[in-house]
Amino acid sequence: MEQRDLIVVGAGSAGIAVAIRAARFGARVVVVESGAIGGTCVNLGCVPKKAMWLASELAESQRLAHEVGFASGGGGELDWAEYVGRRQAYIEDIHASYRRRFEEFGIELVAARARFANTRTIVAGTRELTAPHIVIATGSSTRRPELPGAELGIDSDGFFALRARPRRVAVVGGGYVAVELAGIFRALGSDVTVFVRGQQLLHGFDTEASAELSIAMTGRGITMAGGVAPSALSRNADGAYTLQFAGSENVAAGATTFDAVIWATGREANTVGLDLAAAGVRVDRTGHIEADDWQNTSVDGIYAIGDVTGRLPLTPVAVAAGRRLADRLFGGKPDAKLDYTNVPTVVFGRPPLGTVGLSEEAARALHGDDVAIYRVRFRPMLHSLSGSTERIFMKLVCAGADERVVGIHIVGRSADEMLQGFAVAMKAGATKRDFDETVAIHPTSAEELVLMGELNRTPVV
């Protein structure tokens, strides 16, 4: 039996964060991972996704440049295979960086599948490891729908395996992944249809902001089909795919045949094979590991962080939770834990949607009638110069007599870069008056967030 201070199961963002922070404090750490270091974010998520989004940004910039007067000779279609090679080289640099950090801090990486033997012991291949503290950070995996022919489609993992652009693409789903992949495909030249079971993209987001995003996506040529549920997928003799639907009356004629079908229908926790029962670790009805605000599971000394808990499945959240857990266990900070409120996030659609805090619906449920809404829609300078009619949408949700800002929602170009600083202000308790008293940076789109006045206000009901 090999003794350590900390065993981390999973070398994704969460696992790496807690391992490195604990090792900095002098803990003897071993990380068990059977797959690629970096987990979903680095290999099949945020990093390659953002790389493809940047490619789509460049494609759109070429078109905008032509529309404002630049000669059209410098553009062209993306060499997908060439770009994927560059993307993979970037990812391999990240792998190497993590390995150097592990070596620097004496963290052992065991390439094996892990399972619990008991509450203090992990079996990793032929080795038995024991520690007073065990962190489960195994992340999540894509989930396909259970319907005939589902195996013929691809998921987001399959998207990253593509080496050429499909001409006609169906994206099934209405969450982060669906919105992001649809935007990337369309900007790079594919004909795209998004099929959503309900009527709203991004369930749980501010309804008005989600609707604005849907309008913008439609304006960019993406076909939106709401209120439909696929019932089967088949492959035709010519190699194309046909989607069948329950409620097909909501699907436009001719919009059922595609060259690629992408399932963006959710994710599930990676717990198979861990033998959680041997340690007595409980999972909830969705299969995620139950963890409290301190990342404690149902078993003392066993913790869960990141997507395996199903709580705010975002890489920065996983990293922050892991670091605070290490601070508490090994850094002499017994009160360290992550504050899960007011976490900013961006959906990297085309255009992007950035949000932090409460939606209007959530604010009204919490504060009743004591809510005021400020909103603005405008064409940014570049869109005006190019003749585009697409607008940026900004919304402030305020609560209380002092109109404390409790929600910020931005849909449009550069929303991803604008939100971070405003999120700090909101986290610090900024009021609408603080926004009003901040001098605008002109000419920018971001200035509109501090220029909203009474004309932009929906009065308290």
Description:
With 461 residues, the chain is an alpha/beta fold. The chain has three domains: 2-142 and 268-330, FAD/NAD(P)-binding domain (3-Layer(bba) Sandwich), CATH 3.50.50; 150-265, FAD/NAD(P)-binding domain; 351-458, Enolase-like, domain 1 (2-Layer Sandwich). It is 31% helix and 23% strand. It has helices at 13-24, 39-44, 46-67, 80-104, 156-161, 176-187, 207-219, 315-330, 360-367, 381-386, 415-427, 432-436; strands spanning 2-3, 6-9, 29-32, 108-110, 114-118, 121-124, 127-130, 133-136, 140-142, 168-172, 191-196, 223-226, 229-235, 241-246, 257-258, 260-263, 267-269, 302-304, 345-347, 353-357, 371-378, 392-399, 404-411, 457-458. The chain has a six-stranded antiparallel beta sheet with strand order 19-20-23-22-21-24, sandwiched between helices. Strands 4-3-2-8-18 form a five-stranded parallel beta sheet, covered by helices on one side. The chain has a four-stranded mixed beta sheet with strand order 1-7-6-5, with no helix packed on it. A hairpin with a 2-residue loop joins strand 6 (121-124) and strand 7 (127-130). The chain is globular, with a radius of gyration of 24 Å.
Mean pLDDT: 95
Number of domains: 3
What is the level-2 CATH architecture name of the largest domain?
3-Layer(bba) Sandwich
Number of alpha- plus pi-helical segments: 12
Beta-strand share of residues: 15-25%
Assign the CATH class of the largest domain: Alpha Beta
- The shape, in one word, is globular
Count the E strands: 24
CATH superfamily of the largest domain: FAD/NAD(P)-binding domain
Rg measurement, Å: 24 Å
How helical, in percent, are the residues?
25-40%
